[in-house]
Amino acid sequence: MIRNVTRRVRAGRMSLWRLEWLRLIRTPRALALAAAFVVLGLLEPALTRYQSQILGHVGNGVRISFPPATPAQGVSSYAGELSGIGLVVVVVLAAGAFSFDARSGLATFLRTRVGNIWQLVTPRFAVWAAAAAIAYLLGTLAAWYETQLLIGPPAVGAMLAGIGCGAVYLAFAVAVTALAASGVRNTLATAGIALAVLLLLPIAGTVHAAEPWLPTTLASAPADLLARTHPLGYYLPTLAVTVAAGAAALGVAALRLRAREI
Amino acid sequence: MSGADISLGTGSGGGFRLPPHLPVALLPLLALIVALDAYCLVDLARARSARGAPKIVWAIIIVFVSAPIGALVYLFAGREPRRHDPPAAASGQPGAPRPAPPALADDGAAPPPRDLPPILTTSGLTRDYGGTGLFDVDLVVPRGSIYGLVGPNGAGKTTLLSLLAGTRRAGRGSVSLTVARRRIAVCPDLPEFDGWLTAAEVVDLARSLVAPAADGDDVAAALRAAGLADSAARRVGGFSRGMVQRLGLACALVGDPELLILDEPTAALDPAGRAEMLGLVAAMRGRRTVIFSSHILADVQRIADQVGILRDGRLLYQGATRGLIDTYLQPSWLVRIAGDPAPVASAMAGERWATRVQPVAPDTIRIDATSIEAGERGIPAVISACAARQVSCEPAAADLESAFLALTGASA
């Protein structure tokens, strides 16, 4: 038995990176993350394409006629979930990973063994930002397939640029979740605070001059790029600000987590 | 979306005709939902139970609650941690075999080395939580000793251990260590781990953090030492509390620490498990230094050679366990003699070390001595000199509990 254990341990070689990977695949987290985005990706273009028929059946005598849906609208309806259900799923799941201080026994195990707090923060951020980006990419591919089939081919370049903007925004959302986790220990409270920040931040965008500088502007970038509302260059300052703000959020989170007592 | 025309009409505007591409378009979505539901149903069927409701209720939720919401609710709220091992190996199950007892490297553990500087000292260590907490604690922990920290609930034991472990900061005072921080291992009173990791993975994670150069053999050895060799491949989510406590100890041991800080290490264990744990700790004497807290004084007396008594955040006593008993208790023995005990009693009364001799039964006398050593040497000598036949000789309440009560009562 001991030899078996030794062999298994040698093969495994645990680390804090592998811990996050296992958190993804051994719990429903990866499944939920991918399923949420893919289901939305498959559903939203179909709803956009058939919204007239759907509303005609539930409209109780009210007939609503929409102009024919465009490919941009098909994908944009999915991309809008970057500030909706998709965002909620990413934040809630990431909050579970970052609130390692919620259980004092687990916090003691981790904190008395790591040299510095970045050992805990970095793998969590990297793995969850990557997982969110991959889930968003899968959802986009699903939306692409549906749109191509039901409406028509969307612009490839705009879609790829939108995927990039969306991935950066989701990484920022994960960083904000880390920052929220440094303020409270409870997972639900962490998710609530992070979502409140991310959902209320666009209010600042009502000030027209501030909009290009707000990270939340990236949430609407995939749709706007497809609709050709703005070129990619318009979002370059936003991307820079988002990366800087995300790094700052992670830095502050690490400082606060390091100062926290168990 | 923009540019919609809204008008009132009568009827539904004709029957709904399925658009030609819609079935193909929705096929992946339907496949995904069906696959998710099927996965959940198979998972439910293979599980021994589900959380919050019977399995049949969860099956109904998965199938009938708007797909895939029912399935997602099950995944997050109803799924029990998976057990991939034979059920008989589960601890706490009737008929389940006990985990293998810890392998004691050396029952006759080496005595603490002398003439070495203390491994840990504190100076005026204070953490005030508004009247409660810890105040002016000057701790001295000899290297290689087993240091038992005792005190009533709220005395400050966990606070003191947290300050020593570095998980809390002192308001005042200092902690001095003659060992590197990374050679200190901490095991809390309620260790917690991610339930989806196996025991071997948890210990391997601890190894990777504190002793990257160690290998799988060290992980296996730590698991064996904690009595978890047979459960190495099991997921921690199915462990009993006692097994989790053993796992916490395995994580502490895998780094081969010089100083081991254990908070209530026997709190969750049954009597047999407690004895095994105490044996394991006792076997570390001389090889490692162990500081452990406990409210079970018999445990402390059994294995600790040094003891610190905390009350209301203050260290009332610190020193050798035996010295505490000697200092705070009048050593006393009950001696039973075959035949008339009067000659023995009068002989005892004539000894300088005997402070009081009184009969307590027709064949039994109680002897109070100036010290334990004096009594332990003097009583057999007197009985022998009297040519009396001794039936029994046992200490009368000369234990740590009595000393603890005497000490804390005297300070009240």
Task: Describe how the helices and strands are arranged.
The complex is a heterodimer of chains A (262) and B (412).
Chain A: H1 2-12, H2 16-25, H3 29-49, H4 51-58, E1 62-65, H5 71-79, H6 85-98, H7 104-111, H8 118-150, H9 156-181, H10 187-204, H11 217-226, H12 236-259
Helix pairs in contact in A: 2-8, 3-5, 3-6, 3-8, 5-8, 5-11, 6-8, 6-9, 6-10, 8-9, 9-10, 9-11, 9-12
Chain B: E1 5-8, H1 22-46, H2 55-64, H3 69-78, E2 120-128, E3 133-137, E4 140-141, E5 146-150, H4 157-165, E6 172-177, E7 184-187, H5 199-210, H6 216-225, H7 241-253, E8 259-263, H8 271-282, E9 289-294, H9 297-303, E10 306-311, E11 314-320, H10 321-328, E12 332-338, H11 342-349, E13 354-361, E14 364-369, H12 372-385, E15 389-395, H13 400-410
Parallel strand pairs in B: 5-9, 5-10, 7-8, 8-9
Antiparallel strand pairs in B: 2-3, 2-4, 2-6, 10-11, 12-14, 12-15, 13-14
Helix pairs in contact in B: 1-2, 1-3, 2-3, 5-6, 5-7, 6-7, 10-13
Structure commentary:
Chain A is mainly α and 262 residues long. Chain A has one domain (2-6, 15-259). Chain A is 73% helix and 2% strand. The longest helix of chain A has 33 residues, at 118-150. The model of chain A has no long low-confidence stretch (mean pLDDT 89). With 412 residues, chain B is α/β, with parallel strands linked by helices. Chain B has a six-stranded mixed beta sheet with strand order 7-8-9-5-10-11, sandwiched between helices. In chain B, strands 2, 3, 4 and 6 form a four-stranded antiparallel beta sheet that branches. Chain B is elongated and about 115 Å long.
Quick summary of this structure?
The complex is a heterodimer of chains A (262) and B (412). Chain A is mainly α and 262 residues long.
